[in-house]
Amino acid sequence: MRAAVVTEFGTPPTCQDFAEPQPATGDEVLVDVVAAGLHPRVRSQADGSHYTGSGELPLVPGIDGVGRAPDGTLRYFVLPDTSMGAMAERTVVDTRRSVVLPEDADPITVAAGMNPAMSAWVALRRRIEFAAGQDVLVLGATGNAGRLAVQIAKHLGAGRVIAAGRDAARLAEVPADEALTFDELGKAADVDVVLDYVWGPPTADALRTIVTERSDRGRPLTWVEIGSVAGRTIELPSAALRAARLQLVGSGQGSVPTRDIVTELHALVNEIGSFRIDARAVPLQDVESAWRDTGSAQRLVVTP
Q1: What is the pTM of this model?
Q2: Which of 25, 26, 123, 165 has the greatest count of CB atoms below 10 A from its CB?
Q3: 57: CB partners within 8 A, 6+ apart
Q4: Mean local confidence (pLDDT), 207-235
Q5: 10 Å Cβ neighbour count for 94?
Q6: Is residue 139 a contact partner of residue 226, using CB atoms and an 8 Å limit?
Q7: How far apart are CA 179 and CA 166, in angstroms?
Q8: How far apart are CA 194 and CA 196, in angstroms?
Q9: Do 301 and 108 contact (CB within 8 A), yes or no?
Q10: Is 263 left (phi over 0), alpha (psi -120 to 50) or beta?
Q11: HSE of 297, CA atoms in CB hemisphere, 13 A
């Protein structure tokens, strides 16, 4: 079969022949892949930088997608961390980590949206005690996941949702109640929850600003680290944890049990069509050029 194959970390995959995988347990099935999302998480898988990586090569990237099962059902699936990913003509899926889709579901939209949407959806529903009416700040709201986080926070009952990012022009396109550049974050100092897709130095600066300028430092502030597009580490003054009622947590693989994530797949798949998702399909044979398209505002989806 044909697949996107990574033979060296740090270089784009190329479309080439690859051995067809075979189901190993009674819960696994071989599916014909219809669409696989090219998410930032997939890029980090393919360059060897993600914390779940095994270092095994060659590697077929892709952590989720939509596939046609042998019984004819169309399924959204999430794969375990193995070297056999979703960007291939066929892959093996554990049915317990998949959801049957309605026949009228758009595979491109589902493959493009589920992974970035799950980041905020799981964080708010499983990682913290989020209550309707709380105010939410999304750091990094101009990215695909950040734009969806704004929509999801509203959908789940947030009071005020504030979008923050570097690019003022792109911020204007985000459907938030208020948009702020990183230099203006003092205006968001009294939020209840921060969904952070940025990390690195911008987060360190934002933490200092928000903690310092809160009108009531005893009011709980929950900071959820989800992504790290601006850096993997921060320099955090100890006073930030003592001077305010700050709870700093992360949300991702490991911090949320797999069973909880799978449960939320069923809930989210019924809502995914209500969110605005800008997706573009690219053929599997063009995966190398698609991989180099890092500046696109659209979510790219590889279609075998």
Answers
A1: 0.88
A2: 123
A3: 6, 7, 8, 9, 83
A4: 94
A5: 17
A6: no
A7: 10
A8: 6
A9: yes
A10: alpha
A11: 13
- Calpha distance 121→140 (Å, rounded): 16
DSSP letter string over the chain? -EEEEBSSTTS--EEEE-PPP---STTEEEEEEEEEEE-HHHHHHHTT-STT----SSBB--SEEEEE-TTS-EEEEE--SSSB-SSBSEEEEEGGGEEEPPTT--HHHHHHHHHHHHHHHHIIIIIS---TT--EEEETTTSHHHHHHHHHHHHTT-S-EEEEES-HHHHTTS--SEEEEGGGGGGGTT-SEEEES--HHHHHHHHHHHHHH-S-TTS-EEEEE---TT-S-----HHHHHSS-EEEEE-SBTTB-HHHHHHHHHHHHTTGGGS---EEEEEGGGHHHHHT-TT-SSEEEEE-
Q: How far is CA 98 from the centre of its chain?
A: 17
Give the Cα separation of 81 and 158 in Å (integer).
33
Residue 49 has pLDDT above 90, yes or no: no
Which tens digits make up the pLDDT trace of 69-114?
Answer: 999 999 999 998 788 999 999 999 999 999 999 888 899 999 999 9
Contact 141, 163 (CB under 8 A): yes
Query: Tokens 């929850």 — which residue?
Result: 193
Asked if 221 and 210 count as a contact pair (C-beta separation under 8 A), the reply is yes
Tell me which amino acid residue 12 is: P
Beta-carbon count within 10 A of 263 CB = 14
CB neighbourhood size of 24 (10 A): 9
β-pair partners for 45: none
Q: What is the pLDDT of residue 165?
A: 95
Alpha carbon distance 145, 138 (integer Å): 10
